[in-house]
Amino acid sequence: MRTSARPTIRVLLADDHPVVRDGLAAMLSTQPDLTVVGEAATGAEALRQTASLAPDVVLMDLQMPGMDGTTATAAIRAAHPEVRVLVLTTYDTDADITAAIDAGAVGYLLKDTGRHELCEAVRTAARGGAALSPTVAAKVLAHMRGDRGAGLSGRELEVLSAVARGQSNRQIARVLRLSEATVKTHLLHIYAKLDVRDRTAAVTAALGRGIIRMD
After folding, report:
1. Does pTM top 0.85 for this prediction?
2. What is the mean pLDDT of residues 99-104?
3. Residues with Cβ < 8 Å from 122, sequence gap 6 or more?
4. CATH number assigned to the domain covering 9-144
5. What are phi and psi of 58, to 5 degrees?
6. pLDDT (tens digit, 9 = 90+) per residue, 69-78?
7. Helices assigned H by DSSP within 146-198
8. Residue 2: pLDDT above 50?
9. CA 45 → CA 16, 25, 64, 104, distances in Å?
10. Are the CB atoms for 191 and 197 separated by under 8 Å?
11. CATH number 1.10.10.10 is the correct assignment for the domain at 150-208
12. Average pLDDT over the chain, rounded to an integer
C-alpha cells in the first residue's frame, strides 16, 4: 500500500552569522519534508520575512544586532500566532531560557544539537509540540521545581541583571520605570531566594549557578 509523503515544512532561518545560516540550510535541505524558504540576519528582518514568506517554523538565534531573538519571537508570535518559533542558540542560562519561553518560543535548542535531533525538533515545533534539548529540559524542570534560579520572577531577573551591570538602585528604577523603594523590595526578595546578604553575593551566586550571564 502506497503511503503519502509528509507535508513540506517551511522554515525561516534567523541568525546574524552567514556561515551558520549556510550550514543550517545545507543540513535541513537533506530532509525531503523540510524546506528553507528564507533567511534573516536580524530580529527585525525575521519579523518582516515571516510576514512575507509565511513559514511554519522560524529557527531563531537569540543574540542578533538591533532587535534580539527574544524580542523578535514575541513580535512574531503576536503578529503571526500560527507560526512556531524554535530557538537555536549557544546560551543556556535560566534567564535566556525563561525569557524565550515567556516570549512564546515552542522550543529551545543549543547549537551543539545533532542533525537528526534538530530536524526532529523542527518537525515537533511545526506540530506545535515542545522541543527542548536535554540540558534545557532539565533546567526548565528544575526551574519549575524552584531548584535553579531560586524561583526568581522575570522582574527580579531584570533587577539582578542590572545590578550585575553595575547599575545603582536609582538607575535601575529609572530604566525599569519603578520606584527606588520597589527596586529595594525586589533586591530583598532576591537575597532571600538566593540565601545571600548583599548585592555582590547575589551577583556572584547568580553567575555561578547560571541564572544570569554577563554579555
Report:
1. no
2. 88
3. 9, 11, 28, 34, 57, 59, 86, 131
4. 3.40.50.2300
5. -105, 120
6. 999 999 999 9
7. 154-164, 169-176, 180-194
8. no
9. 10, 17, 11, 18
10. yes
11. yes
12. 88
